[in-house]
Amino acid sequence: MNFGGRRRGVDVAGLSRTRAHQPEAVAEAAARRVRRPLLGGGGRLLIIAADHPARGSLGVGDDPFAMASRGDLLERLRLALSRPGVDGVLATADILDDLLLLGALDSKVVIGSMNRGGLAGAAFELDDRFTGHRPEDLTRLRFDAGKLLLRVDYDDPGSLTTLHSAARAVDAMAERRLPVFVEPFLTRRGGPDGTGPPRNDLSAEAVTTSIAIASGLGGSSAYTWLKVPVTENPDDMARVMETSTLPAVLLGGDIGDDQDAAYEKWRGALRLPTVRGLVVGRALLYPPDGDVAGAVDTAVGLL
């Protein structure tokens, strides 16, 4: 595998020993981590996302277990975070704890993933409970923000539970003056009987509606950001993003084999006035050509 740039193997055995014998080392690393403002001088963000495994979503492209090797994932993350212009990482506690122990989070924006209960492929997937970071955890660990996923299926009662829980999480984050990135979708189950896997609707109408729903969550939107996908037709993004004044970042997602087409979609949407950056995971950590550094550097160039 060509990672691009210098490759340093992650000592998985050493991490495991530290966890077994010195579990307090995680809190100690969090306490001494050098922090930075959410937005730097340029006012833009590039965040590397790695919260997929905790929802049982391990696949990239044709490989259903591409993200299953924790050592490999950490190596990719450490390389991505070392590239100039990368602002931070979005992940669950297990991955962020590893990165803290590796000393990879100094002067980086750290975003904790909050709801991972909607396991991929489960009957209860859209009842997306908050099983990850709580607002009090983010405060205790001195992290910089949280992220929640809000998939709404008008035919699935589980979406109402998620909607209510998300609103209360927005309230709790605002009370602590912590930014929260809300990732909204209108979602429908496929198949003739409506029991197939959920599919996110990326039409202009659906993305517009999801933004309107997400923007109104909770008793204050002062600390709410949006994490939005690019619509099926990228030309629709200008009118879609007129739905809210909340600051937004673009969701990268799994781009398949056509990296250039994805970059071009992001490039156009990044020019819109409320869009402040990108949050991208698998597309940069597992690019088709294997060049992690090259993929990250290209994304930085878009900003």
Descriptors:
303 residues, 8-stranded parallel β-barrel, globular, 11 helices, alpha/beta, single chain
Account of the protein in words:
Strand 3 (109-113), helix 5 (135-140) and strand 4 form a beta-alpha-beta unit. This protein starts with 11 loop residues before the first helix and ends with a helix. It is globular and about 50 Å long. With 303 residues, the chain is of the alpha/beta class. An eight-stranded parallel barrel has the order 1-2-3-4-5-7-8-9, surrounded by four helices. It has eleven helices and nine strands. Helix 2 (25-32) crosses helix 4.
Give a concise summary:
The chain has helices at 12-21, 25-32, 70-82, 93-101, 135-140, 158-175, 204-215, 237-240, 259-269, 282-285, 292-302; strands at 45-50, 88-91, 109-113, 145-152, 180-189, 198-200, 224-229, 248-251, 275-280. It has 303 residues and is an alpha/beta fold. An eight-stranded parallel beta barrel has the order 1-2-3-4-5-7-8-9, surrounded by four helices.
